[in-house]
């Protein structure tokens, strides 16, 4: 959006005061909330409280990235596309993905079915 390669961004761009200085935001059309996705065999991560020191996958500029940046000793890995973060989770390059809850639910019920779970 800021490089003028697109005219509008519809999702996966978190509204912040800093961003509002350079782009115009509409009123939020949907409030999704954030959640966690882990590999199906993971039993160590059950909530945000369990993320200290973990390898976390997020989408660049997302609310998940903002949340992850505040987790002590976390190794935060940012991806251009959330599908890349999910792939990294599947390949065990990250321990958890923080992302919008509806997208997480869609992933674990489709491409991630039998591989990943929402926790």
TrEMBL record:
Keywords: Signal. It holds the Pfam family SBP_bac_3. InterPro entries: Solute-binding_3/MltF_N. Gene3D superfamilies: Periplasmic binding protein-like II. Residues 1-79 form the Solute-binding protein family 3/N-terminal domain. This is Glutamine ABC transporter, glutamine-binding protein. It comes from human gut metagenome.
């Amino acid at each position: 959006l800021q490089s003028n390669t697109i005219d509008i961004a519809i999702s996966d761009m978190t509204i912040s005061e800093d961003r509002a200085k350079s782009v115009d935001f509409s009123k939020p059309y949907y409030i999704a909330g954030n959640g966690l996705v882990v590999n199906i065999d993971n039993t160590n991560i059950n909530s945000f409280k369990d993320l200290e020191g973990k390898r976390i996958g997020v989408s660049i500029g997302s609310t998940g990235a903002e949340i992850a940046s505040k987790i002590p000793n976390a190794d935060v890995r940012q991806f251009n596309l959330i599908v890349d973060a999910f792939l990294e989770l599947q390949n065990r390059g990250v321990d958890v993905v923080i992302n919008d809850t509806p997208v997480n639910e869609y992933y674990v019920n489709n491409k991630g079915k039998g591989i990943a779970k929402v926790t």
